[in-house]
Amino acid sequence: MNDDDFHFPPVRGDQLGQALAIFQAALHAPLDGAGVGVHVEEASDRLADEVESWDLDFDQRNSLILRVLAFNELLGRAARDDRFGAHVETVGGAYNVSDDFMRAAARAELAPSGPDQEGLAFDLESVLRGLRH
Questions:
Q1: How far apart are CA 108 and CA 31, in angstroms?
Q2: pTM exceeding 0.90
């Protein structure tokens, strides 16, 4: 994989926030009265169905969905990094994030990650640059 394989245009911070809310709701929705949330793949499908009607082109939709999927990992890394202290805090096991952090994440670069570079993650330095502008 090389950088030419990726095109993840920025999205709006409010779109990222709304998509995260949809994804989290799908993850925690009961299934046929069983009281068990759906799996990530099913929640991703629900998110994709929902954002299909938004005014986004193909690349923007994909970028938004991939940002949602990578966001939890970003929160964990940012919460442990003092440079994000004013923007990400953990309260009672949940994360509180600033609007500026959401906007920066919506515009930040995504990069290959993992042992085989098969996953995607937010570039922390890109998020920091977004917080400064």
A1: 34
A2: no
